Amino acid sequence: MARRNHTTDLGSIACDDLTDLGAGKEGWLVENPNLLTALDTHSIALANRSTVLVIEFSDGADPSGASRVKIRPTLSPIEAESISAIEWLVFDDVRVLAIGTSCGSQIVNTGRIIKLRVRGTKRDLTQDTSSEEICAVMPGVIARFDGSDIQSMLQRWFQESHTQFWDHKRDPDDSESSFGRLPYQLWNVNKYGSCADAAVTGIMPPPLMEVQLFWFLNSAAFIVGQSSQRYFCAITIGDDAVISAFRLSEDRSRSLVGAILSKVVPATFSTIASFSKMIWRSEQKSPKKPEAKPQSFARASPLTCFKDHPRKGEKLTLSPSGTLAAITDSLGRILLLDTQALVVVRLWKGYREASCLFMEMLVNKDKASSSSSYYEHVKSDYCLCLAIHAPRKGIIEVWQMRTGPRLLTIPCSKGSKILQPTYRFGSSSGTASSYIPLELFVLNGDSGQLSVVNRPLN
Protein backbone atom coordinates (compact mmCIF):
# COMPACT_ATOMS: atom_id res chain seq x y z
CA MET A 1 0.00 0.00 0.00
CA ALA A 2 1.40 3.37 -1.02
CA ARG A 3 2.27 5.75 1.78
CA ARG A 4 0.14 8.88 1.87
CA ASN A 5 1.90 12.20 1.55
CA HIS A 6 0.18 14.95 3.49
CA THR A 7 2.54 17.77 2.46
CA THR A 8 3.37 19.51 -0.81
CA ASP A 9 6.87 20.84 -1.52
CA LEU A 10 6.96 24.53 -2.42
CA GLY A 11 10.65 25.09 -2.99
CA SER A 12 13.99 25.47 -1.29
CA ILE A 13 15.58 28.44 0.46
CA ALA A 14 19.06 26.89 0.58
CA CYS A 15 21.75 29.43 -0.30
CA ASP A 16 25.27 30.43 0.71
CA ASP A 17 24.03 33.45 2.67
CA LEU A 18 22.45 31.13 5.24
CA THR A 19 25.90 30.15 6.49
CA ASP A 20 26.11 33.53 8.24
CA LEU A 21 23.12 32.43 10.31
CA GLY A 22 24.60 29.05 11.20
CA ALA A 23 23.42 26.87 8.31
CA GLY A 24 25.58 23.84 7.61
CA LYS A 25 25.40 22.53 11.15
CA GLU A 26 22.77 19.90 11.90
CA GLY A 27 19.82 21.37 13.77
CA TRP A 28 20.95 24.99 13.26
CA LEU A 29 17.39 26.22 12.66
CA VAL A 30 15.95 25.01 15.98
CA GLU A 31 18.89 24.78 18.39
CA ASN A 32 19.85 28.47 18.31
CA PRO A 33 17.44 30.39 20.60
CA ASN A 34 18.52 33.70 19.03
CA LEU A 35 17.53 32.63 15.51
CA LEU A 36 14.19 34.16 14.51
CA THR A 37 11.91 33.45 11.53
CA ALA A 38 8.97 35.25 9.93
CA LEU A 39 7.05 33.91 6.94
CA ASP A 40 5.09 35.78 4.29
CA THR A 41 3.71 34.79 0.90
CA HIS A 42 6.74 33.81 -1.24
CA SER A 43 9.27 35.28 1.20
CA ILE A 44 10.86 34.37 4.51
CA ALA A 45 12.93 36.44 6.91
CA LEU A 46 15.56 34.90 9.18
CA ALA A 47 17.48 36.88 11.78
CA ASN A 48 20.22 36.39 14.32
CA ARG A 49 21.33 38.95 16.88
CA SER A 50 22.53 41.54 14.34
CA THR A 51 21.51 40.56 10.79
CA VAL A 52 18.26 39.87 8.94
CA LEU A 53 18.22 37.81 5.74
CA VAL A 54 15.14 38.01 3.49
CA ILE A 55 14.79 35.25 0.89
CA GLU A 56 12.19 35.24 -1.88
CA PHE A 57 10.98 31.84 -3.05
CA SER A 58 8.47 30.47 -5.55
CA ASP A 59 7.00 27.06 -6.27
CA GLY A 60 9.58 24.81 -7.89
CA ALA A 61 11.99 27.65 -8.70
CA ASP A 62 15.76 27.28 -8.57
CA PRO A 63 16.89 28.57 -5.14
CA SER A 64 20.14 29.90 -6.61
CA GLY A 65 18.18 32.47 -8.59
CA ALA A 66 16.04 33.62 -5.67
CA SER A 67 16.20 37.25 -4.60
CA ARG A 68 17.99 37.81 -1.29
CA VAL A 69 18.34 40.94 0.83
CA LYS A 70 20.50 41.46 3.90
CA ILE A 71 19.43 43.99 6.52
CA ARG A 72 21.78 45.24 9.22
CA PRO A 73 19.83 47.56 11.54
CA THR A 74 21.64 50.20 13.56
CA LEU A 75 22.17 48.74 17.04
CA SER A 76 23.75 50.33 20.09
CA PRO A 77 27.10 48.71 20.96
CA ILE A 78 27.10 50.42 24.36
CA GLU A 79 23.82 48.77 25.39
CA ALA A 80 24.76 45.48 23.66
CA GLU A 81 21.55 45.86 21.67
CA SER A 82 20.44 42.89 19.58
CA ILE A 83 17.50 41.79 17.44
CA SER A 84 14.91 40.06 19.62
CA ALA A 85 11.76 39.87 17.42
CA ILE A 86 10.77 40.16 13.75
CA GLU A 87 7.42 40.10 11.97
CA TRP A 88 5.98 41.04 8.58
CA LEU A 89 3.44 43.86 8.32
CA VAL A 90 1.48 43.31 5.10
CA PHE A 91 -1.07 45.83 3.86
CA ASP A 92 -2.82 46.11 0.51
CA ASP A 93 -0.05 48.14 -1.13
CA VAL A 94 2.73 48.10 1.47
CA ARG A 95 4.85 45.30 2.90
CA VAL A 96 7.45 46.00 5.58
CA LEU A 97 9.45 44.00 8.09
CA ALA A 98 9.11 45.10 11.72
CA ILE A 99 12.18 44.52 13.90
CA GLY A 100 12.15 44.56 17.70
CA THR A 101 15.34 44.84 19.74
CA SER A 102 16.54 44.03 23.23
CA CYS A 103 16.47 47.73 24.15
CA GLY A 104 12.84 48.25 23.17
CA SER A 105 11.83 51.82 22.36
CA GLN A 106 12.85 54.99 24.17
CA ILE A 107 9.35 56.40 23.60
CA VAL A 108 7.15 53.36 24.31
CA ASN A 109 9.15 51.22 26.76
CA THR A 110 12.81 50.33 27.18
CA GLY A 111 12.15 46.66 27.93
CA ARG A 112 13.28 43.86 25.66
CA ILE A 113 10.72 43.16 22.94
CA ILE A 114 9.89 39.48 23.33
CA LYS A 115 7.29 39.15 20.59
CA LEU A 116 5.62 41.15 17.84
CA ARG A 117 2.07 39.92 17.33
CA VAL A 118 -0.04 40.82 14.30
CA ARG A 119 -3.68 39.78 14.28
CA GLY A 120 -7.09 40.90 13.11
CA THR A 121 -10.72 39.88 13.10
CA LYS A 122 -13.33 40.77 10.50
CA ARG A 123 -16.95 41.60 11.19
CA ASP A 124 -19.13 38.63 10.20
CA LEU A 125 -21.87 36.38 11.58
CA THR A 126 -19.64 35.23 14.44
CA GLN A 127 -17.87 38.55 15.14
CA ASP A 128 -19.77 41.70 16.16
CA THR A 129 -16.75 43.96 15.76
CA SER A 130 -13.63 44.14 13.61
CA SER A 131 -10.15 44.85 14.90
CA GLU A 132 -6.66 44.91 13.39
CA GLU A 133 -3.63 45.47 15.58
CA ILE A 134 0.07 45.03 16.22
CA CYS A 135 1.16 44.23 19.77
CA ALA A 136 4.67 44.46 21.17
CA VAL A 137 5.18 42.15 24.14
CA MET A 138 7.85 43.08 26.69
CA PRO A 139 8.56 41.63 30.16
CA GLY A 140 5.43 42.59 32.10
CA VAL A 141 4.31 45.14 29.49
CA ILE A 142 2.02 45.09 26.43
CA ALA A 143 1.91 47.90 23.85
CA ARG A 144 -0.91 47.90 21.30
CA PHE A 145 -0.89 49.77 17.97
CA ASP A 146 -3.96 50.03 15.75
CA GLY A 147 -3.44 48.64 12.26
CA SER A 148 -5.00 51.66 10.55
CA ASP A 149 -2.60 54.01 12.37
CA ILE A 150 0.38 51.93 11.27
CA GLN A 151 -0.84 51.92 7.67
CA SER A 152 -1.39 55.70 7.64
CA MET A 153 2.08 56.29 9.07
CA LEU A 154 3.71 54.04 6.46
CA GLN A 155 1.88 55.78 3.63
CA ARG A 156 3.01 59.19 4.91
CA TRP A 157 6.53 57.87 5.31
CA PHE A 158 6.67 56.64 1.70
CA GLN A 159 5.27 59.93 0.43
CA GLU A 160 7.73 61.91 2.55
CA SER A 161 10.65 59.76 1.41
CA HIS A 162 9.70 60.37 -2.21
CA THR A 163 9.48 64.12 -1.55
CA GLN A 164 12.84 64.23 0.22
CA PHE A 165 14.43 62.44 -2.71
CA TRP A 166 13.63 65.45 -4.89
CA ASP A 167 13.92 68.11 -2.17
CA HIS A 168 17.42 67.82 -0.69
CA LYS A 169 17.05 71.05 1.31
CA ARG A 170 14.40 69.59 3.58
CA ASP A 171 15.46 69.19 7.22
CA PRO A 172 15.47 65.47 8.10
CA ASP A 173 14.75 66.33 11.75
CA ASP A 174 11.27 67.50 10.72
CA SER A 175 10.26 64.05 9.50
CA GLU A 176 8.88 63.00 12.87
CA SER A 177 6.62 66.04 13.11
CA SER A 178 5.38 65.55 9.56
CA PHE A 179 4.47 61.92 10.18
CA GLY A 180 2.87 62.62 13.53
CA ARG A 181 3.42 60.60 16.66
CA LEU A 182 2.03 57.09 16.41
CA PRO A 183 -0.78 56.58 18.96
CA TYR A 184 -0.71 53.46 21.09
CA GLN A 185 -1.95 51.94 24.33
CA LEU A 186 0.40 50.70 27.04
CA TRP A 187 -0.39 48.33 29.91
CA ASN A 188 1.55 46.94 32.86
CA VAL A 189 0.66 43.25 33.28
CA ASN A 190 3.34 42.12 35.75
CA LYS A 191 1.05 41.76 38.78
CA TYR A 192 1.71 38.01 38.83
CA GLY A 193 5.35 38.25 37.78
CA SER A 194 7.19 39.01 34.58
CA CYS A 195 5.59 37.34 31.57
CA ALA A 196 7.39 35.13 29.07
CA ASP A 197 4.75 35.80 26.41
CA ALA A 198 1.42 37.58 26.14
CA ALA A 199 -1.36 38.35 23.67
CA VAL A 200 -4.38 40.61 23.37
CA THR A 201 -7.17 38.17 22.53
CA GLY A 202 -9.86 40.66 21.54
CA ILE A 203 -12.47 43.14 22.71
CA MET A 204 -14.43 42.33 25.86
CA PRO A 205 -17.43 43.98 27.59
CA PRO A 206 -16.88 46.65 30.27
CA PRO A 207 -17.02 45.79 33.98
CA LEU A 208 -20.52 45.27 35.33
CA MET A 209 -20.08 47.87 38.09
CA GLU A 210 -19.16 50.53 35.54
CA VAL A 211 -22.27 49.84 33.46
CA GLN A 212 -24.47 50.01 36.57
CA LEU A 213 -22.81 53.24 37.76
CA PHE A 214 -23.29 54.94 34.40
CA TRP A 215 -26.95 53.90 34.47
CA PHE A 216 -27.34 55.35 37.97
CA LEU A 217 -25.73 58.65 37.00
CA ASN A 218 -27.92 58.99 33.93
CA SER A 219 -31.07 58.20 35.90
CA ALA A 220 -30.08 60.86 38.46
CA ALA A 221 -29.96 63.47 35.67
CA PHE A 222 -26.19 63.96 35.79
CA ILE A 223 -24.61 65.10 32.54
CA VAL A 224 -22.53 62.00 31.98
CA GLY A 225 -22.51 60.11 28.68
CA GLN A 226 -22.06 56.43 28.08
CA SER A 227 -18.42 55.41 28.11
CA SER A 228 -17.07 55.07 24.57
CA GLN A 229 -13.78 53.45 25.53
CA ARG A 230 -13.06 49.86 24.60
CA TYR A 231 -11.85 47.06 26.82
CA PHE A 232 -9.51 44.29 25.72
CA CYS A 233 -8.72 40.90 27.20
CA ALA A 234 -5.06 39.93 27.55
CA ILE A 235 -3.55 36.54 28.36
CA THR A 236 -0.04 36.27 29.80
CA ILE A 237 2.14 33.27 30.61
CA GLY A 238 5.32 33.11 32.66
CA ASP A 239 7.41 31.49 35.36
CA ASP A 240 5.40 32.60 38.40
CA ALA A 241 1.93 32.16 36.88
CA VAL A 242 1.30 29.65 34.11
CA ILE A 243 -1.73 31.64 32.89
CA SER A 244 -2.96 35.11 33.86
CA ALA A 245 -5.80 37.16 32.40
CA PHE A 246 -6.35 40.92 32.48
CA ARG A 247 -9.02 43.39 31.40
CA LEU A 248 -7.25 46.22 29.59
CA SER A 249 -8.79 49.67 29.48
CA GLU A 250 -7.99 52.42 26.99
CA ASP A 251 -8.44 54.99 29.76
CA ARG A 252 -5.32 55.86 31.78
CA SER A 253 -7.37 57.23 34.71
CA ARG A 254 -7.74 55.11 37.84
CA SER A 255 -11.41 55.57 38.61
CA LEU A 256 -14.70 56.76 37.20
CA VAL A 257 -14.37 60.00 39.17
CA GLY A 258 -10.98 60.52 37.57
CA ALA A 259 -12.50 59.92 34.15
CA ILE A 260 -15.17 62.57 34.81
CA LEU A 261 -12.63 65.06 36.17
CA SER A 262 -10.38 64.47 33.16
CA LYS A 263 -13.22 65.78 31.00
CA VAL A 264 -14.42 68.62 33.27
CA VAL A 265 -11.13 70.10 34.53
CA PRO A 266 -9.50 70.67 31.10
CA ALA A 267 -12.65 72.39 29.84
CA THR A 268 -12.75 74.65 32.93
CA PHE A 269 -9.06 75.47 32.65
CA SER A 270 -9.47 76.25 28.95
CA THR A 271 -12.25 78.73 29.77
CA ILE A 272 -10.15 80.46 32.46
CA ALA A 273 -7.13 80.60 30.15
CA SER A 274 -9.19 82.16 27.36
CA PHE A 275 -10.58 84.78 29.76
CA SER A 276 -7.12 85.63 31.10
CA LYS A 277 -5.82 86.27 27.58
CA MET A 278 -8.42 89.01 27.24
CA ILE A 279 -6.90 90.82 30.25
CA TRP A 280 -3.19 90.07 30.02
CA ARG A 281 -1.36 89.81 26.74
CA SER A 282 1.28 87.14 27.03
CA GLU A 283 4.70 87.67 25.54
CA GLN A 284 5.25 85.90 22.23
CA LYS A 285 7.81 83.14 22.55
CA SER A 286 9.59 81.27 19.84
CA PRO A 287 8.02 77.87 19.24
CA LYS A 288 10.03 75.06 20.70
CA LYS A 289 9.68 71.46 19.67
CA PRO A 290 8.37 69.52 22.68
CA GLU A 291 10.36 66.55 23.81
CA ALA A 292 8.65 63.19 23.41
CA LYS A 293 7.96 61.61 26.78
CA PRO A 294 7.03 58.02 27.58
CA GLN A 295 3.31 57.44 27.86
CA SER A 296 1.81 56.43 31.18
CA PHE A 297 0.25 53.01 31.66
CA ALA A 298 -3.46 52.49 31.13
CA ARG A 299 -5.53 50.40 33.52
CA ALA A 300 -4.96 46.63 33.54
CA SER A 301 -7.37 44.90 35.92
CA PRO A 302 -6.51 41.28 36.84
CA LEU A 303 -9.25 38.76 36.08
CA THR A 304 -7.77 35.39 37.02
CA CYS A 305 -4.49 33.64 37.65
CA PHE A 306 -3.42 30.00 37.51
CA LYS A 307 -0.32 29.01 39.50
CA ASP A 308 1.02 25.47 39.63
CA HIS A 309 4.64 25.42 40.82
CA PRO A 310 7.00 24.28 39.34
CA ARG A 311 5.07 24.45 36.06
CA LYS A 312 6.01 27.43 33.86
CA GLY A 313 4.31 28.80 30.78
CA GLU A 314 6.58 28.76 27.73
CA LYS A 315 4.77 29.45 24.44
CA LEU A 316 1.44 30.98 23.52
CA THR A 317 -0.46 30.91 20.23
CA LEU A 318 -3.90 32.32 19.39
CA SER A 319 -6.65 31.10 17.09
CA PRO A 320 -7.65 33.48 14.26
CA SER A 321 -10.70 34.74 16.19
CA GLY A 322 -8.77 34.97 19.46
CA THR A 323 -11.31 32.79 21.30
CA LEU A 324 -8.85 29.92 21.82
CA ALA A 325 -5.25 29.90 23.00
CA ALA A 326 -2.81 26.99 23.03
CA ILE A 327 -0.23 27.19 25.81
CA THR A 328 2.79 24.93 26.25
CA ASP A 329 4.43 24.54 29.65
CA SER A 330 7.70 23.27 31.10
CA LEU A 331 6.18 19.89 32.08
CA GLY A 332 5.42 18.84 28.52
CA ARG A 333 1.72 19.70 28.63
CA ILE A 334 -0.40 21.69 26.19
CA LEU A 335 -3.40 23.59 27.54
CA LEU A 336 -6.26 24.72 25.31
CA LEU A 337 -7.75 27.84 26.88
CA ASP A 338 -11.13 29.38 26.13
CA THR A 339 -10.16 33.06 26.28
CA GLN A 340 -13.74 34.26 26.76
CA ALA A 341 -14.75 31.92 29.59
CA LEU A 342 -11.11 31.76 30.84
CA VAL A 343 -11.38 27.99 31.27
CA VAL A 344 -9.01 25.24 30.12
CA VAL A 345 -11.15 23.06 27.84
CA ARG A 346 -8.55 20.50 26.77
CA LEU A 347 -5.19 19.12 27.88
CA TRP A 348 -2.47 17.12 26.14
CA LYS A 349 0.42 15.43 27.98
CA GLY A 350 3.83 14.20 26.90
CA TYR A 351 4.76 16.97 24.45
CA ARG A 352 8.02 18.45 25.72
CA GLU A 353 9.58 21.24 23.62
CA ALA A 354 6.43 21.29 21.48
CA SER A 355 5.25 24.14 19.25
CA CYS A 356 1.63 24.82 18.30
CA LEU A 357 -0.12 26.70 15.51
CA PHE A 358 -3.78 26.87 14.56
CA MET A 359 -4.74 25.89 11.02
CA GLU A 360 -7.83 25.04 8.96
CA MET A 361 -8.55 21.71 7.27
CA LEU A 362 -11.07 20.93 4.56
CA VAL A 363 -13.86 18.73 5.94
CA ASN A 364 -16.87 19.22 3.62
CA LYS A 365 -15.34 17.56 0.56
CA ASP A 366 -18.59 15.90 -0.49
CA LYS A 367 -19.89 19.21 -1.85
CA ALA A 368 -17.13 19.43 -4.41
CA SER A 369 -17.36 15.78 -5.48
CA SER A 370 -21.16 15.80 -5.83
CA SER A 371 -21.20 18.97 -7.93
CA SER A 372 -20.45 18.60 -11.63
CA SER A 373 -19.51 22.26 -12.03
CA TYR A 374 -16.53 24.01 -10.51
CA TYR A 375 -16.97 24.45 -6.78
CA GLU A 376 -15.11 27.10 -4.80
CA HIS A 377 -14.77 26.27 -1.13
CA VAL A 378 -16.16 28.69 1.44
CA LYS A 379 -15.28 29.23 5.08
CA SER A 380 -17.92 26.78 6.35
CA ASP A 381 -16.18 23.95 4.46
CA TYR A 382 -13.16 24.21 6.77
CA CYS A 383 -12.75 23.28 10.41
CA LEU A 384 -10.37 24.85 12.91
CA CYS A 385 -7.54 22.56 13.98
CA LEU A 386 -4.48 22.70 16.21
CA ALA A 387 -1.17 21.52 14.79
CA ILE A 388 1.25 20.23 17.42
CA HIS A 389 4.89 19.82 16.42
CA ALA A 390 6.52 17.31 18.78
CA PRO A 391 10.25 17.35 17.87
CA ARG A 392 11.15 14.59 20.32
CA LYS A 393 8.62 12.31 18.63
CA GLY A 394 9.51 13.52 15.14
CA ILE A 395 5.88 14.11 14.16
CA ILE A 396 3.27 16.81 13.58
CA GLU A 397 -0.22 16.03 14.86
CA VAL A 398 -3.36 17.82 13.68
CA TRP A 399 -6.29 17.84 16.13
CA GLN A 400 -9.79 19.08 15.37
CA MET A 401 -11.09 21.84 17.64
CA ARG A 402 -12.37 21.96 20.22
CA THR A 403 -12.77 18.38 21.34
CA GLY A 404 -12.49 16.56 18.02
CA PRO A 405 -10.23 13.63 17.14
CA ARG A 406 -6.70 13.60 15.80
CA LEU A 407 -7.01 13.99 12.04
CA LEU A 408 -3.40 13.64 10.89
CA THR A 409 -0.01 12.40 12.01
CA ILE A 410 2.75 13.68 9.74
CA PRO A 411 6.38 12.48 10.03
CA CYS A 412 8.72 15.42 10.48
CA SER A 413 12.48 15.48 9.98
CA LYS A 414 14.76 16.50 12.80
CA GLY A 415 15.70 20.16 12.64
CA SER A 416 12.34 21.24 11.18
CA LYS A 417 10.16 24.14 12.25
CA ILE A 418 6.47 24.90 11.69
CA LEU A 419 5.63 28.36 10.33
CA GLN A 420 2.63 30.40 9.29
CA PRO A 421 2.26 33.53 7.13
CA THR A 422 1.45 36.72 8.97
CA TYR A 423 -2.01 38.27 8.99
CA ARG A 424 -2.69 40.52 5.99
CA PHE A 425 -4.30 43.84 6.93
CA GLY A 426 -7.38 44.79 4.97
CA SER A 427 -7.52 41.36 3.34
CA SER A 428 -10.83 40.29 1.84
CA SER A 429 -10.26 36.64 2.73
CA GLY A 430 -13.31 36.72 4.94
CA THR A 431 -15.69 36.85 1.98
CA ALA A 432 -17.39 33.62 1.02
CA SER A 433 -16.32 33.75 -2.63
CA SER A 434 -12.59 34.08 -2.02
CA TYR A 435 -11.87 32.55 1.36
CA ILE A 436 -8.23 31.71 2.00
CA PRO A 437 -7.83 29.17 4.82
CA LEU A 438 -5.17 29.30 7.49
CA GLU A 439 -2.36 27.04 6.31
CA LEU A 440 0.60 25.38 8.00
CA PHE A 441 4.12 25.39 6.53
CA VAL A 442 7.08 23.20 7.47
CA LEU A 443 10.68 24.33 6.98
CA ASN A 444 13.40 21.69 7.08
CA GLY A 445 16.46 23.59 8.23
CA ASP A 446 18.98 20.92 7.24
CA SER A 447 17.78 20.63 3.62
CA GLY A 448 16.24 24.08 3.21
CA GLN A 449 13.04 22.55 1.85
CA LEU A 450 9.78 24.42 2.49
CA SER A 451 6.48 22.53 2.28
CA VAL A 452 2.82 23.13 3.09
CA VAL A 453 0.38 20.75 4.78
CA ASN A 454 -2.38 19.73 2.37
CA ARG A 455 -5.84 21.14 3.08
CA PRO A 456 -7.82 17.92 2.36
CA LEU A 457 -7.32 14.91 4.61
CA ASN A 458 -6.52 12.57 1.71
Could you explain how this protein is built, in words?
With 458 residues, the protein is of the alpha+beta class. Helices cover 15% and strands 35% of the residues. It contains 6 helices and 26 strands. The chain has helices at residues 28-31, 147-166, 175-179, 208-219, 256-279, 366-370, and strands at residues 7-12, 36-40, 43-47, 52-56, 68-71, 83-90, 95-101, 115-121, 131-138, 141-146, 185-188, 195-204, 231-238, 243-249, 300-306, 313-318, 324-329, 334-338, 343-348, 355-362, 382-390, 395-400, 406-411, 416-419, 441-444, 449-453. The strands form 7 sheets. It has a 4-stranded antiparallel beta sheet, with no helix packed on it. A 4-stranded antiparallel beta sheet has the order 2-3-4-5, with no helix packed on it. It has a 4-stranded antiparallel beta sheet with strand order 8-9-10-11. Strand 16 (313-318) and strand 17 form a beta hairpin. The chain is globular, with a radius of gyration of 25 Å. It comes from Rhododendron griersonianum. InterPro entries: Rab3GAP2, RAB3GAP_N. Residues 28-419 form the Rab3-GAP regulatory subunit N-terminal domain. It holds the Pfam family RAB3GAP2_N. This is Rab3-GAP regulatory subunit N-terminal domain-containing protein.
